[in-house]
Design brief:
The complex is a heteropentamer, with two copies of chain A (263 residues), one copy of chain B (312 residues) and two copies of chain C (265 residues). Chain A is an all-alpha fold. In chain A, 84% of the residues lie in helices and 0% in strands. Chain A starts with a helix and ends in a 5-residue tail after the last helix. Chain B contains 13 helices and ten strands. In chain B, helix 1 packs across helix 10. With 265 residues, chain C is α/β, with parallel strands linked by helices. Chain C is built from eight helices and nine strands. In chain C, helix 3 packs across helix 4 and helix 7 packs across helix 8. The termini of chain C are far apart. Classes of the chains: A mainly alpha (263), B alpha/beta (312), C alpha/beta (265). Bound molecules: adenosine-5'-triphosphate (2 copies) and magnesium ion (2 copies). One magnesium ion binds next to helix 1 of chain C.
Chain lengths: 263, 312, 265, 263, 265
């Protein structure tokens, strides 16, 4: 049983690993073959070297960014959920408020950075705010879609039992929306990482601390491209970790929603 | 001479090259636009297409990969590029004095960068000077926050200071009623040449006549621009309508002092010296922006094309 | 008419007309009155409008013309009053993320009944439909007939004063069906709710009900009606009673006639 | 009929309009009451004034940005669809390639700007590329979810008829995924606008032309905040137009998928 | 055994065992052989495993132990060979974004039949089930019985050599049901496909089939078998034939016995 699970685990992990190895080899090949300069596109060895040299710095920065991104993601998940609930309860609210949600989605952070800093301040809070703004919309859109796409038959069932609006929401719409919410979370968790990085461009953490956003700006300005790519790799790593966590949660939860006969 | 510039053999005898700016067109690019507008490049049988930049414009990479023949960056950018292995060479450096400054409220009474304390300082992590300053000065009780291009936070807070270009942020801040004072970074001794014309080693080696033509015409352009900037400013304004004539005019005023220092008066606009490159490399080493052995000072620049002063 | 919550609801329909958004007229000029506590069976050709009629009575969809009241109120108001409605829809309509037990518990949960009471009632209802062993399974682990029985159990826990059943036993084997027929009759005898029962089995309709209404093809109306006045309580022996067999034959004849009137689609 | 439709149209449009008026009044009130400086948060009149003064410029810039955003959106829709199809066909491909999709989602554009410019060039193409990169992921995530959440009963039906993989895809998975794809499109259309603006930050269009990204950077640098907000307003306007177009398309399409009895 | 594509398929099962992922054993030690062209009816208590058996024969799920072949091949291979399979699932299983007509056309479309041929066949099939007028509607606009008839039409257009029907007529009124019984028999007489027919109506099972298999409660196996050897073609008068009535009674008795063996859930 455990053995079996282990081998199955290997079967799941091995092919993507293999594929990654191929990608890295191809990357190395291209960089070597076309003699691409490291300041433009560093080869995998260059990036690896940068990682090894700057590992403590990268880890520290990634930890700080992860913290902000996680907070931003959780905030966007909860707020987005509440907004979606509001939208699902009132077409009027939906029609009236959607434009403002789109405003948040389409506003360049640089334009509202002074306001964010003024109202929320520099440091972690500001970074979290940016991460939140950037990762909010997918939660709203997907959760709203999930909450409003309930089968009419099930709505009838609840109407027959004179369920209150609240009961329809809690016992029907929300459970029905769970898969859609998880899809929204999959999108938002990556956005929360890039949001935290962008937030660091504008808000920072203070004099001594810094996250991946700082490293990215710095290494980019100084044309330290291998180091830049190492930082980007860490940001993608964060995205992957977040994504995997959401995916693991999904597959656990969704068993209940659409589990299949494994035969 | 001009004849040699035809070497690339375009049918009409004109060589076409591109020049990538490091920002949207503004006063710090004035000399190059003047050369273009007044036909100085064309007189040398070179047609220069000037490409505007933006906040994240990758100028060094574009030059290094040959997408454009020429570009503009600051001297510290050249050193960064060389440290990364990009064969970039500085050819011509109009700004002898770097226009970088720190803007403070006059009410703080601060008159020198060394005195910065008890305030919030918006400093981009991009340019080398910010690392130099932070290494060099104690900055007691100064909170360093990112800088993102707007003077709004400065207007809101007496104890707020920020980086800037002497002809941009202080002007904007004053126009909005603030008592802005510009403290020149160059006064601290960290003074990289600015708006430096760059090309690759290959271009310099294989097309010396072209390079000479462009440098010469640019030099003439700068001289012309500082003398009578109006036409050029109008041209810049037409390309970058959000850059108004007033700011451009102020920019020229301030640029005169930064471009035409004693050295330039003696040696001609755009002159560079080994000592200053050497000093800059040492300062960047001190700021830990580059590492020892990464950069050979001599390779950063070429004085070859500055030898003859421009014809008037 | 004032409602007595301990007895069945009163259903009254005159000249009811139902037209769907796409123009289909499902019910036309339908007149039906069901007294409180009556058990009425509806039979009629497939697609004639039986389910539509039940949906109208339940207030799930509105009538296009005519009058339809439950206890003197429009159906959705009656539903909202303290009178209870239960409806076994034609499809099981279970919540796929809830276990069988929790599906059955739903109406009681929605009524904020205490957990312990719910558990007792749910167990009784599951036992009634013969599903006491699968309470912890999910709907997808059940057979078609079992799913339908879950839906029936869910309706019965609600202790309604008006019970609508839309072909509830069609997916069941004859023996289970018979047993559930008798259970339903027994419940009805105890509680005297009003019951509208749609079925395609004329025999079942006759066995269960006090009146059998024969409905014509779409747009449907009542084309024939039979009173069923056998002794109570009824039991399986009734099925071989000659009077019963004759009545069944009579209803069947009316049904075929109704279908010939206008060809059903 | 037409009359009716008109009044209904008014019924739909009026309340959000009214709400907008309230929001604008509240905004005006706050700015006046707290005497907020226009360079920090301009009042609605300031913004309106800026719009009226710079209208031709704003319209020209918005048109250019719209063009890039539309191209980026369409590209991400098609590419995202194809990637999702690939993911739905092979768990292996999904597991192997998802990390790279997340890479695209979490990479700061500034880090790969040189590569984009190198491979795709400045001008419209570069801007479109950034818009594409930023708006790609939601399409992939939602379409994949849609393609893979088909009822097992329907899959059985197709298996019984010995449908080929391709037929299952074309006749079952894709139609089933349409609602999810449209939700993805709702998210991506706004992202494509912000993507185009970010793209304009470094790629630009050439000498004379400029989009909203240019206006935003320049007005921000000069602290022409009313004008900056006018530009942001236009960017949100673009987002709204895109969103409304997708929403209109959705409601038309979805009639077929889950149309309801309107009684 | 080589397959003759013009005649029915051969189904052979010995010691078949089916255990679901959750541990439920639905089928245990089942032995059935169906000769090519035979019409076999299956009756058994709700939840015993009839649908599961059909799914095994269709190759939709795999057996856990034993042997099960169709034309000598594992079911999924048989399905993939040129032999055609059609299966009326217990639920209608229609594509909600396709009109009725296009739902029925699906199997032919999947086979790349020319459009014009499809149209003719679809019209015929819709007429057979009495739905010629609703071809342009969407499934959600149909009644439960109509949806099931669409599903039947979809199976019949496919001209299968093995036809599996899972309670296809349960949602239909008796007259429509009778008519479809006769249409099905007529089709079978013409084409001689092999047919496995699950029903809860013992009468229907006896009327239609050559053999009636009685299945026991879960885990199911065949507990009794009756040959049905009436003259062909059969017609409605058979239903009042004494021999027929006796046979029905016999099957019913076996069914009740089977249910008592172990209590069904
Ligand atoms: N939402 C709808 N839109 C349009 N037509 C509908 C709708 N629902 C039902 N119909 C039509 O109304 C008629 C009656 O449907 P109904 O479901 O009431 O039939 P029924 O008597 O219950 O049939 P069955 O015995 O097959 O369940 C049918 O012709 C059907 O096509
Ligand atoms: N996917 C599944 N997972 C677990 N158990 C299942 C699954 N599908 C069916 N079963 C169980 O297998 C048994 C047989 O189910 P099946 O659907 O074959 O019954 P059936 O004879 O068709 O009943 P009915 O007449 O009610 O349709 C049931 O007890 C059911 O709970
Ligand atoms: Mg019905
Ligand atoms: Mg079954």
């Amino acid at each position: 049983m455990t053995r079996n699970r282990l081998t199955r685990g290997a079967g799941i992990v091995a092919p993507p690993m293999l594929f990654s190895v191929l990608v890295v080899l191809a990357w190395h090949g291209v960089v070597t073959l076309f003699d691409i300069r490291p300041y433009l596109l560093p080869g995998p060895m260059d990036v690896l070297h940068a990682v090894s040299v700057h590992l403590p710095t990268l880890i520290g920065a990634a930890a700080l960014t992860a913290q902000a991104a996680l907070a931003g993601f959780l905030l966007s998940f909860f707020v987005g959920f509440l907004v979606a609930v509001l939208f699902s309860q009132s077409r009027l609210a939906e029609r009236s408020l959607y434009p403002y949600a789109i405003f948040l989605q389409t506003v360049p952070i640089v334009a509202i950075a002074p306001l964010i800093v003024l109202w929320i301040g520099h440091g972690l809070a500001g970074v979290v705010a940016v991460s939140f703004i950037i990762s909010l919309f997918p939660i709203i859109a997907n959760t709203t879609a999930g909450l409003t796409s309930v089968d009419t038959e099930l709505l009838d069932l609840f109407a027959l039992n004179e369920a209150s609006r609240w009961q329809v929401l809690i016992k029907l719409r929300v459970p029905h929306a769970v898969p859609a919410m998880l899809t929204g979370a999959r999108i938002s968790c990556g956005l929360s990482v890039i949001g935290a990085i962008v937030g660091e461009f504008f808000a920072g953490y203070g004099t001594q601390d810094f996250g991946l956003g700082y490293l990215i700006i710095l290494t980019n300005a100084q044309t330290k491209t291998p180091y830049l790519f190492a930082s980007v790799l860490f940001s993608t790593g964060l995205g992957l970790i977040f994504f995997s966590a959401v995916a693991a949660l999904s597959s656990k939860t969704l068993d209940r929603w659409g589990g299949r006969d494994v035969n | 001479g001009p004849q040699e510039a035809v070497e690339d053999g375009a049918p009409d005898g004109i060589t076409r090259v591109k020049l990538a700016l490091n920002w949207f067109p503004e006063a710090q690019h004035g000399g190059y636009y003047a050369a273009q507008l007044h036909g100085y490049y064309l007189e040398q049988h070179v047609e220069v297409e000037i490409l505007g930049g933006g906040p994240d414009a990758p100028v060094v990479q574009r030059v290094a990969t040959g997408q454009v023949e020429f570009g503009l960056t600051n001297a510290d950018g050249v050193i960064n590029a060389r440290a990364a292995g990009a064969p970039i060479v500085a050819l011509f450096a109009p700004y002898q004095i770097n226009p970088r400054c720190i803007v403070v409220h006059e009410s703080t009474g601060i008159t020198r960068i060394e005195q910065l304390e008890d305030l919030t300082l918006a400093l981009s992590q991009r340019p080398a000077f910010s690392h130099f300053l932070r290494k060099r000065f104690p900055f007691r009780n100064v909170t360093v926050v990112p800088y993102h291009g707007s003077v709004t936070p400065f207007l809101e807070d007496e104890r707020f200071a920020m980086q800037g270009y002497v002809f941009s942020e202080p002007v904007v801040a004053r126009r909005l009623g603030a008592d802005a004072r510009a403290l020149m970074v160059a006064d601290t001794g960290f003074n990289p040449y600015a708006s430096v014309l760059i090309a690759t080693e290959t271009t310099v080696r294989e097309h010396p006549a072209l390079v000479a033509a462009v440098v010469g015409a640019s030099r003439r352009g700068w001289s012309q621009y500082l003398d009578s900037p109006l036409a050029t400013n109008q041209h810049i304004h037409s390309l970058n309508p959000e850059m108004d004539m007033e700011i451009l005019a102020a920019g020229v005023e301030l640029s005169r002092d930064l471009v035409l220092d004693e050295v330039a008066a003696a040696e001609g606009i755009g002159h560079m010296s080994r000592q200053r490159w050497q000093l800059l490399v040492e300062q960047m080493l001190e700021a830990e922006v580059i590492e020892a052995g990464q950069v050979q000072v001599e390779q950063c620049y070429s004085l070859e094309f500055l030898a003859t002063p421009p014809s008037p | 008419m004032t409602a007595d919550p301990t007895s069945g609801a009163h259903v009254y329909a005159t000249a009811v007309h139902k037209r769907f958004a796409d123009g289909t007229v499902a019910v036309d000029n339908l007149d039906v009155e069901v007294s409180p506590g009556q058990f009425v069976a509806l039979v009629g050709p497939s697609g004639c409008g039986k389910s539509t009629f039940l949906r109208l009575v339940a207030g799930l969809t509105g009538i296009s013309a005519g009058t339809l009241t439950v206890d003197g109120m429009p159906p959705h108001e009656a539903r909202a009053s303290q009178r209870r409605l239960a409806y076994v829809l034609q499809d099981p309509t279970l919540l796929r993320w809830r276990r069988v037990r929790d599906n059955v518990a739903l109406p009681l949960e929605l009524r904020h009944m205490p957990r312990n009471d719910i558990q007792v009632r749910v167990n009784d209802a599951l036992e009634l439909v013969g599903l006491q062993d699968v309470g912890d399974m999910f709907p997808r682990q059940l057979s078609g007939g079992m799913r339908m029985r879950v839906s029936i159990a869910r309706a019965l826990v609600a202790e309604p004063s008006l019970l609508l059943l839309d072909e509830p036993f069609a997916a069941l084997d004859e023996i289970t069906r018979q047993r559930l027929n008798d259970e339903l009759l027994e419940l009805w005898r105890q509680r005297r709710f009003t019951c509208l029962f749609v079925t395609h089995s004329v025999q079942e309709a006759t066995y269960l009900s006090q009146r059998v209404l024969v409905m014509g093809p779409r747009p449907t109306r009542v084309t024939a009606e039979h009173g069923v006045a056998f002794d109570e309580p009824r039991s399986a022996t009734l099925r071989t009673d000659l009077a019963f067999v004759r009545l069944v034959a009579g209803v069947s004849r009316d049904l075929s006639q109704a279908m010939e009137e206008r060809p059903a689609e």
